[in-house]
Design brief:
single chain; 578 residues; alpha+beta; 7-stranded mixed beta sheet; 4-stranded antiparallel beta sheet
Length: 578
């Protein structure tokens, strides 16, 4: 097929990604103006896609009146991120958090309420109270899908976006992609594009070695981060890795958000609590790592001291929502919460604003640095956004993109030369007769990430890792795909290599330690506010190379006060001195 033969579909607003943020963005755009053509593109199937494909057990960042205020939340997340946040974006989320909870509630998403009918808020964060359980959160995707159908959003499943398109003026023009079942290419021309492609969860390798045994939904491999980079958008703070506490040998969280409010806690091998707060911050993970690697490890989730009815409540939530295989995993290991502590470990690294602070740069309107391109959810840069943040920024981006599309009178003109080059890149693996299978190349680059980039970060190791990642890139002409499914994997591998290179270069650029374990550099162990109190930029320069810069931290809307060092004091002194 030649570039001129690729079918072109026109739409006003294109949403890429059908997990959490994407459906909300598409529904919102249609709500803004039902006459707009809105298309949702998903490389799997919207009915069971994204990080919430099997539901969710709670909201980790709900700002509910009577329990917290937007100002308190903005302060908390700023402190948890060592001050490097874009507070206007945090405040936009915080102010719209409760209206979104009410909206989801009206749609039939069930949140836990107390005997008075009020939302049953729980405390897990170090300072404030923001956790709202969802014991019946298994139906979220079904509810979102019904809303998409009700609002007549055009849904295209099984299409993988590969590159974003721009017009001659530098504004977004749509995307080119490929059908994951037939390998047929497609172009979608759009006046505005919303990216909701999730975290880059397949950068590091799980300890099991299984490519798809990741903490994140394994379909979220960093496609969006790579596409944003190649279209010229800024990415921010990519050295701030996502690293989470896991159950040992299980690709799921230990769920302190569920167990903590009911009396469970993170403990060392002697059953002692060693951190005061189980909220997932970089500092919490640094203390976790120190205990795990020290004489008091391994680390455990301690539940065996709880009452029977409490344990039953925990089992009901954890074994039916988000990761229903958890109960079967414990059964296979003969682990009973009543009798045993549950061994924990740390996850592979990734990019994810949901639990960290890295991603494609967006402002408080969801706008990237490319006009007409918006980002929401785990791939965008709003720190610690979680599921509710994905919903809120999906809504914000839906509003912004609809307004941008309505102001754009004509469909954009396509760059035929770029499309021809991208078609050649897409089809290249199908033309390699005896080459490298995608799984082998993916395993190699992700093992390099583990060997050389996994914190604690060492400069020489990162330099070696970058060299070897670039050597893998040189092998791309030998990457082979025998069928459309392998082509999907081959294109994903190229995004993974992009993300691995970005992770290495960003980590080398910020020559200090910050965010606890997320960017802990052994040979630059101190936080250096004089030189590095800023966001870091990563972007493609005019020569097509990865370049770096600094973006100033916007003036704070909420000052920190004496609590600014609160997250540096999580260590329980008795355990530390034992």
């Amino acid at each position: 097929m030649n570039a001129s033969d690729i079918p072109v579909i026109d739409t006003d607003v294109l949403v890429i990604g059908g997990g959490t943020a994407g459906p909300m963005a598409a529904v919102t755009a249609k709500e803004q103006d039902p006459s707009l053509k809105v298309m949702l593109l998903e490389k799997a199937n919207v009915k069971r896609s994204g990080a919430i494909s099997m539901g969710m057990d709670g909201l980790n960042n709900a700002i509910v009146p009577g329990h917290s205020t937007p100002e308190q939340y903005v302060k908390e997340i700023t402190i948890a991120n060592d001050g490097i946040v874009h507070q206007p974006a945090l405040m936009a989320y915080a102010q719209r958090s409760f209206p979104m909870i009410e909206k989801l509630d009206s749609w039939g998403v069930h949140f836990q309420k107390d005997e008075t009918g009020d939302y049953d808020m729980k405390k897990v964060h170090h300072l404030g109270t923001y956790v709202l359980p969802m014991p019946e959160g298994h139906n979220v995707k079904k509810i979102l899908y019904r809303r998409l159908r009700r609002n007549r959003v055009q849904i295209e499943n099984r299409y993988q976006a590969t590159r974003l398109l721009k017009d001659a003026d530098g504004r977004i023009a749509g995307m080119i992609g490929v059908n994951t079942r037939t390998a047929e290419p497609i172009i979608i021309r759009a006046k505005a594009v919303i990216m909701a492609t999730g975290a880059a969860g397949r950068i590091g390798l799980p300890t099991s070695g299984y490519l798809f045994g990741t903490y994140e939904n394994p379909a979220n491999n960093g496609d969006g981060h790579a596409m944003a980079y190649h279209v010229g958008a800024d990415l921010a703070n990519l050295e701030c890795f996502q690293i989470n506490p896991l159950l040992k040998d299980y690709n799921g969280p230990a769920c302190a958000y569920v167990t903590g409010p009911l009396g469970g806690f993170t403990a060392n091998s002697r059953g002692e609590r060693f951190i005061e707060c189980d909220y997932w911050s970089g500092q919490m993970m640094l203390e976790f790592f120190k205990e795990l690697e020290g004489g008091n490890g391994p680390v455990f989730l301690k539940l065996d001291h709880l009452a029977e009815e409490t344990i039953q409540e925990i089992e009901t939530v954890l074994h039916t929502n988000e990761r229903p295989s958890r109960g079967r995993f414990h059964d296979g290991r003969e682990t009973d919460y009543r009798q045993h502590m549950v061994e924990m470990h740390i996850s592979e690294v990734g990019f994810c604003s949901g639990h960290s602070a890295s991603g494609v740069w967006v402002d408080e309107t969801g706008a990237t640095t490319v006009p007409g391109l918006y980002g929401a959810g785990d791939m965008a840069s709003v720190a610690h956004s979680y599921m509710l943040g994905a919903f809120v920024y999906g809504q914000i981006c839906g509003e912004s993109a609809a307004a941008f599309a309505k102001e754009r009178s004509e469909m954009p003109t396509l760059d035929e030369a770029f499309i021809a080059a991208e078609l050649a890149r897409i089809q290249a693996p199908l033309k390699v007769a005896d080459g490298i299978p995608p799984s082998q190349m993916e395993y190699k680059v992700r093992r390099l990430v583990n060997d050389y980039l996994q914190p604690p970060k060492v400069t020489k190791k990162m330099e070696i890792g970058l060299q070897r990642i670039l050597a893998v890139r040189e092998d791309l002409p030998r990457l082979a795909a025998a069928d459309p499914h392998e082509l999907l994997r081959a294109l994903e591998v190229q995004s993974i290599i992009d993300c691995a290179e970005m992770a290495a270069r960003a980590s080398l650029y910020r020559t200090e330690s910050r965010w606890g374990l997320y960017h802990y550099r052994v040979d630059c162990p101190e936080q250096n506010d004089a030189d590095w109190f800023c966001h870091t930029r990563l972007y493609k320069d005019d020569n097509g190379n990865m370049a770096h810069g600094k973006r100033p931290v916007a003036p704070y809307l909420v000052e920190l006060g004496e609590e600014k060092d609160a997250y540096q004091k999580l260590r329980v002194q008795q355990a530390a001195n034992a």
